[in-house]
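Quick log. Single chain, no ligands specified.
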Amino acid sequence: MSNDTPETHENETLAELKKSSETLKRRIEEEKKRNEMPLNSSLGDPKTDAENADGRRDLPEQDDE
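-> predicted structure:
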């Protein structure tokens, strides 16, 4: 008699799903860490916003030659 019962397949499938779930959770955590950016301390500061309003800091710096 073989050990090929539906219950055996269910246990194997459940184990595979748990392993896949853990792998996916680890990947999600790694991606979150990779995409985390520190908040700028001047974010939302009215003085800094006023200084940046003209857009001059949006352009790359150019060398004067």
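Helices lie at 6-35, 46-52.
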